[in-house]
Design goal:
Blueprint (H helix, E strand, L loop, with lengths): L9 H6 L2 H8 L1 H28 L5 E2 L8 H10 L3 E8 L9 E5 L5 E2 L4 E7 L5 E3 L8 H10 L5 E7 L6 E6 L4 E2 L4 E3 L4 E7 L13 H14 L24
Parallel strand pairs: 2-5, 7-11
Antiparallel strand pairs: 1-4, 3-5, 6-10, 8-9, 8-11
Helix pairs in contact: 2-3
Length: about 250
C-alpha cells in the first residue's frame, strides 16, 4: 500500500529493489544523479568519436610539390594520403602552364591524413584585358593606365601631330590599330602613338610598311596643322565727288 506521502509501506518497500525504493523516496536527488551519470557518458562518447575523427596522434609530412606539374603533384599527394584542390592560378611569362607555384600549408608541415591541400598553379591560358580609351591623354597617363591593367610590353612611338606629348591611339607592334574595348592578351606588345609637331608625315611614295600606311590612313588628317583662316581684305572705298553727294 502507498500512503499519502507517495511512499509505500515498509513491508512493500522491502520486497522491491533498493534502487527503486531510493528513487521513490528521493525523486529530486535521483533525477540529479541520473543527469550527472548521463552527462559523463555523453562526454566519454564525444571524446571517443572526436579522437577517431581527428586521428589524434596521426600526421603526415607535406611533401614539396612546388615546381612540379599539376598531375605529378596530385599523384604525389595522393600517395601520401592527401587530397588537393586548385584554388588560384596566375599567368607567369616564361613558365609552363599548370606548374605548381604555391601550396597551403607550406612544405614540411605536419597535417592529418586525408586532409585537403590547396594549390596555386600557373594559368593554362593567357589572361585578356580590354583596351582602354587613352586618346588625348598624356603619354605618362596612358602608360600608367595600361600598366594598371596588367600590360607589360609597352613601347612609345612618336607620330606627327599638332600638339606635343599627346596620345593619339594604340597599336600593335605590326601597326594594327587597337580600338577601345577590344580584348587582347596582356602579353601583347602595345605601342602608344604619341603626337609630336617636330615630325613630318611620310610621303606617299615611301609607304612600304604597315606603320607608314597606318600613319597615313589614320593619323595624317588629324595630325596635320590646321590651316590658318585667311582674313578677308576690305576693298577700299573710293571717295565720292561733290556732285554725287545729293544730301
Amino acid at each position: 500500500m502507498i500512503n499519502q506521502n507517495g511512499v509505500g509501506s515498509p513491508r512493500e518497500d522491502e520486497k522491491r529493489p533498493k534502487g527503486y525504493v531510493f528513487f521513490r523516496r528521493f525523486p529530486i536527488l535521483s533525477s540529479i544523479l541520473m543527469m550527472v551519470i548521463l552527462s559523463i557518458i555523453i562526454v566519454f562518447v564525444f571524446l571517443f568519436l572526436a579522437s577517431r575523427y581527428t586521428r589524434h596522434g596521426e600526421n603526415v609530412v607535406l611533401p614539396n610539390v612546388i615546381g612540379l606539374p599539376l598531375e605529378t603533384a596530385v599523384s604525389l599527394l595522393e600517395s601520401n594520403k592527401l587530397s588537393c584542390e586548385v584554388v588560384d592560378s596566375m599567368y607567369t611569362l616564361g613558365r609552363t602552364p599548370g606548374t605548381v607555384i604555391d601550396v597551403v600549408p607550406s612544405e614540411g608541415a605536419k597535417i592529418k591524413p586525408h586532409r585537403t591541400v590547396f594549390l596555386k598553379v600557373v594559368a593554362f591560358g593567357k589572361p585578356q584585358q580590354s583596351i582602354p580609351e587613352v586618346s588625348n591623354m598624356s603619354m605618362r597617363q596612358a602608360r600608367a593606365t595600361l600598366e594598371g591593367l596588367g600590360f607589360t610590353r609597352i613601347e612609345v612611338r612618336y607620330v606627327p601631330g599638332e600638339f606635343d606629348n599627346l596620345t593619339q591611339a594604340l597599336a600593335t607592334s605590326s601597326g594594327k590599330k587597337l580600338s577601345p574595348g577590344e580584348r587582347v592578351s596582356i602579353d601583347t606588345p602595345i605601342t602608344i602613338l604619341v603626337s609630336s609637331n617636330n615630325i613630318d608625315l611620310p610621303s606617299s611614295n615611301t609607304l612600304d610598311s604597315e606603320w607608314d600606311k597606318f600613319l597615313s590612313d589614320s593619323l595624317a588628317v588629324d595630325s596635320l596643322p590646321k590651316a590658318k583662316k585667311q582674313e578677308k581684305k576690305e576693298e577700299p572705298v573710293e571717295p565720292m565727288d561733290e556732285n554725287e553727294r545729293w544730301w
